Each structure stands twice: as structure tokens, then as C-alpha cells.
Amino acid sequence: MIQMPSHQMPSMADGMRIGIFNAVKALSIRAAALIFALLLTLAPALSPGGAIAAGPALDTRRISTPTAGEWPSHGRDYHEQRYSPLDRIHTGNVGQLGLAWSFDIDSARGIEATPLIIDGVMYVTGPWSVVYALDARTGQRLWRYDPQVPRDWGRMACCDVVNRGVAVYEGKVFVGTLDARLVALDAVTGELLWETRTADAERYAYTITGAPRAARGLVFIGNGGAEFGVRGYVGAYDAATGQLRWRFYTVPGNPAEGFEDDTQAEAAKTWNGEWWKYGGGGTVWDSIVYDPELDRLYIGVGNGSPWNAQLRSPGGGDNLFLSSIVALDPMTGRYLWHYQEVPGEMWDYTASQHIMLAEMNIAGRTHKVLWHAPKNGFFFIIDRENGKLLSAEPYSKVTWAKGYDLATGRPILNPDADWARSGKKVTVYPSSAGAHNWQPMAYSPRTGLVYIPEQQFPGIYQSKPLHGRFGSFNLGTDLAAKGVDNPQLMAAIVRKTLKGRLLAWDPIEQQAAWRVPRTTAGSSGLLATGGDLVFQATVDAELVAVHAADGKTLWRFPTQEAGVAPPISYELDGEQYVAVAVGRGGALGLTAPLTDAPLPATGRVLAFKLGGRHTLPPAVVEVSYGDPPSPGTRDKAMLARGEALYRDHCLRCHSAGGAANRRVPDLRRLERPRYDLFDRIVREGLIQPAGMPGFGDTLSKDDTQAIKDYLLDQAERDRAFRSQPAWLRSIKQTFYEAVATIIAWLM
Predict the structure, then answer these.
(1) For 595, how many CA atoms within 13 A lie in the half-sphere containing its CB?
(2) What is the pTM of this model?
(3) How many helices (H) and strands (E) does the chain have?
(4) DSSP alpha helix (H) spans, 537-655
(5) Cα separation of 476 and 185, whole Å?
(6) C-alpha neighbours within 13 Å on the C-beta side of residue 698
């Protein structure tokens, strides 16, 4: 212990004075903090047009019955019908809609978030799980929270570094991070309140991209990672403390280690072989829905890991609970019932897509039902009291099954679609991207129609061995089978075969009411309103409003950037707004754009109102063609090896042939120094802070050289095509389009 000199020792009187001073100082600091907190709460409300910054007293009851002008939860309320009753903007005046404000997000990567609106504040997320609080009247930023996701963790994301939004509950904002944390923030200040690890991300490639849900004092979140070999589950966390309350596993673990409960033991009877060594999959990466009427939680369970069912579970088996909707007790996680949409799934047919709660009159009796239009192409009506299948009709082109047997609830499989056991190359509709993916549906009680962002294109599957490399896809099939050896023709085929449509589905008649074609697949989720409008952002960089009754386009606005995130609507000061976040990305959004048009420098949140006069700055990000050198080899076997390695490791971010969406670099058009440093970039993570991870643990120097040579060959082809006279390129392109049309028709 350090002892003070005697002449510096305080006297008793001095000690009393010091004690009183410290006490007064502490009280002053506490009083100042209280005054500051009071000013922080009142100042925005007192300022002209300011947002109310008081922490939202949002609880289960308020989300169940939100006020007409708010959007307090992911699907607006717990039914997740994405219907706003607001009708100030309607079919008669939607043409007067204009931009009210815009907010630039810090990144240009993919944006998939649903904004939430509570007490005049918008809460929205961007890439890398960053959270923003904005004044919903003006778009002014109130606070920003960056969870500091390590940029190399983007390697573990199957489908871009996206995030689909937050939950707001009891004065807190909850977000799941890409590196598998659940974070709670103060809704007023953005201050970190607590965070908890939801998965062992040190050993397994778990991610979170979905939005949490909150009810009854709990926050529910799942995870992603099935393509990398993880075991799926959903967890419930105490909203106040972050403590794990329960966890439900969607596939059973190693029998030798014992099962968590009887449900897991029963599920294990539907598996064969040593499935636990491959993870099993079944990740709950998107749809989680709380049912306030029955006090239940429904989860949509994902695909198998690996996709190849013969490798995952040799000898067959249903493989519960893959591709299932499972009902749980929200307070305990106890299993209640399940319905499996695709037993023994092998096509990446997740059941993770948007689950919607509704009521229907069937045969004179009112049923509480789930509506579900998952990847597999069938529209399901399921009794949410007992899990019984009531109806399943195809809403898109389907070749993997011929229909469903309502007596057994099982699909009538097409034996020709079983690529895993036949060993053949098989073309199947829908593809692994699905007839409908994560982009949410909407429902209008005024029309009785469910609106679905449908997409139609084939998937090609063929068995291949597993490689077991950490941090790269391990599917038991090629992610993309080798295509036509002509980039321009292949691009034309992709354009012709990737069909996107806005589909209005009649759940009573179980058939399409109308369809509106889109240029290609991948447009945004949907919003239906009391003004008989349906809003959608498109891959053509427009926000579009159509008549909810017949699909007629009534209004469109050029957003400069493709939209995949769903719009919402809210009301403040007697004015109705429509808002959407735009930014190309995600699984399909990472593919090459349809044009080389300039792009905005960032992703954006856009808000519209009647008479809005705000304008967007000009798009300034021009296309750079770089200065690629010639390939280091022209040996076809070496180039084929490079292409195979590229498909395994690079394609999911950089698209076929390296022609990415320009939010991720086009690898055919880099500057010369990038090619000179190619090995250090790819293996050592030289530009990891920019989001490019290193693959030194799985790729050798020879591997990266093979990939580089393949990309330089693609660059040479791209350069040769662009150097031709415009008239010759036009003639060739017309020919390619004609051939692609014939191929698409034959498929």
C-alpha cells in the first residue's frame, strides 16, 4: 500500500469537508443527468416539426392493435398481413405522390429492412446490421448504432451482408447481427443496453439476417448458416436482460450425446446415417410469428444441410423439422405441432418465407389459419389450431411435385426430380431461389386478395461430393451448373428465364386473380393500403403503385437503385407517407445488373407524401472498365478448374463469370493493381475492411492463380465484345436474345 506523507494527511475537519463536497458533487451530477434526460425527451417535441423522442411504451397489446398511423412491428401487427388501413393516398390521387425526404445509408450493399414507425420515429437497418433512428417527418438522423460486425464474417453469409430490420418493444430496439449476436438498444438514445451471443460463431458459420420478433416480455430470433453446415434452432431471450429463456432445435443432434427432449428423440427417427456430422440445417432465418389469439409462436424452418438428401440422410427419411412450420409455446418453447411442406427436402425449399395469420370460412365454419407461399411454389392454408393442411395449390410453375394429398398432407412427388438419388443432372421448377423468397407478401381485406412477389426460373441440380471446407458452401451439388460458354448469350438466357411477377392470389378460390409482369425476378416485398393500392419497389429502380383490384399501374417513381425491401405506410400530422429502403443486394441482387447505368453512391430510405417536392441528387457512380491483363494461361483444363473453384467460393457474391452488381466489384473490370495483388486480396484478406474476407484457410496459391486466370479469360471476352462496332454488337445481341427466347420457351 502507498502511504501519504504526514503533512499531506487530511485532518478530521478536512475529511468532513471533503465528504460533504463529494456528496454534493454526486448529487449535482445526478441532478444534471436527470435534467439532461428530461431535455433530451422534451426538446425534439418542443422544436418545430420535431419527432417525439420519448421511449416508445410498446408492449404486446399495442403491437396487437396498433394505431392506424403507425407501423410498430415487422408485419405491422402480429398477423403480419402488411396492410395499412390509411386511405388519404388512394387510387384517385396517387398520381400526386411526390418525394417528401430521403436519407442516405452509409453503405451501398444490399438493403432488405422493413422500417418501423413508433411515436414519429423511424427505426431501420442497413448492411452490416447497422441501426438508424430517423425523424419520420424529415428523415433527419436522430442516432446511429454500429455493432462493429467483423468484415471477414461476410464470408459466412450465404446471401449478402443484409439485415431485415429490428423489433421495438418496452423502450428498446432489438437487432440481430450478422455475427450472431442479439443486441438491445435504448430507443431514445441508441445506447447499448445489453448484447448476447445467440450461437457459437467461433466454431460454426452462424449468421443472423432476419428481424427479431417480441411478445410477452421475450425476444425471439433464429439464425442462418445451413449452406455451411450448422444445426438450426430458435431462441427466446428476456427483453429486459438478454438472458436465454429457452431454445428449440429444429433438427436432432448426435444421439450419443443424448437428446434435449422427447421431441428431438422422435424427430431423430426420421433421419438416417450420421446427419449430425453435417449440421443438418433447418435454420430459422426469417419468418417467426406470434399469435396473440392462441398464444402461440410459429416458426418457418429452412433447408437441409447439405442440400443433397442422399449424403445428408442416406436411406431416406422425412428429416424433421426441415421445410416445416412448427408451432411452439412462446413462454417455454414446448413443441405443439408441425406441418412439413417438403419431407426429405433436397431442392433448398425452405419454409422460412413470410407466414401470415388470417381467418377463413371453410364449409360453413370459421377457421383460424396460416397462409404460406414458400419457395416450393404451392400456396398453403393450414389450420393454426392443430397444424392440419386444408389446401395446397400451385401459385407458380412447379415440376418437383404433382400436387398434395390432403388426406395425408404429403406432396405427390415427381420421381424425375430426385437428383440426389438418381445421380442425374435434373432441371426443376422452382429453383433454389424459390417461386417466392423472403420478400414479404401483403393482404388487403378490401379485395380479399393476397399479393405475392412471385418469380419463376429453373434450378439445375446434380450430385457432387462434399468438401468440408469451413466458410464455403457445402451443398452436395453445384451452386450453378456450368452454363453456355458465351457470356453475352448466357446473360440473355438468364434475362429470359428469370421471370418476375406481382401476383394477386385469391385464397378462397385458390387461384390467381391477376398477374403483372416484371422485367426479371427479385423485386421487393409488398404493401397493401386502405386506398386500394399495392406498392412495390422493382429491380428496374422504380417504386410502383398498382390498383389492388386489377393490377393496373397508377403511379411510378424512379428510385435510381433497385429495391428489394418492402414498403410501409404511416401517418403524421394528418399526412400519410409511404416509405421504402432501396439498395440492390441479397442472393439475386448480387447478380449482374441489366444495364451499365450510373448508380447512386449509397443505399437510401425514401419517404413519399401527396405534394412532396424533394428531389434526389443525380446518380454519380459510373461504370469503370478497369485495365485487366491477359490471362496467364489459355489451357482449357486449367480455366475449367478455376471456374469450378470460383463457383464454390466466389459466385455467391460476385455472380456468374465475375460480372457482379457493382455494389460488389465486377471481377472482370478491376484496376491493374487489384490483379497484381489478387493472391494477397483473396487469401490474406488485404482489403478485409472493405468487406472482402481472406480465404487462406481453404485456398492455396495455385487455387487463387486458377481463379485469377479464369476471371482474366472472362475479362478478355468482355473486352473483345465491347471493342466491336456498335452495329455488330447490336446484331449479335439480337441473335442472342432470339436464341435465349427459344431456350426459355423450351424450358
Answers:
(1) 11
(2) 0.90
(3) 13, 39
(4) 586-589, 636-649, 651-654
(5) 40
(6) 19
Label residue 396 exposed, middle or buried (CB < 10 Å: 0-12, 13-18, 19+). buried
Question: d(Cα 370, Cα 382) in Å, to the nearest integer?
Answer: 5
CA–CA distance, 718 with 741 (Å, rounded to integer): 22
Phi, psi of 576, deg, nearest 5: -90, 140
Strand partners, 608: 99, 578
Cell representation of residue 356: 401470415
pLDDT, tens digit, 9 for 90 and up, residues 24-80: 333 343 343 333 333 333 333 333 333 334 467 778 888 999 999 999 999 999 999
Dig out the grid coordinates for 604 from the structure: 437510401
Which residues have C-beta within 8 Å of that of residue 182, sequence separation ≥ 6? Answer: 174, 175, 176, 195, 196, 198, 208, 212, 219, 221, 237, 242
385-397 pLDDT tens trace: 999 999 999 999 9
Contact 355, 287 (CB under 8 A): yes
Catalytic residue among 135, 160, 348, 478: 348
DSSP sequence for 358-384: EEEEETTEEEEEEEE--TTSEEEEEET
Q: Confirm whether 416 is a catalytic residue.
A: no
Contact call for residues 629 and 134 (beta carbons, < 8 A): no
SS3 state of residue 616: coil
Helix axes 487-497, 701-722, angle to 10 degrees: 90
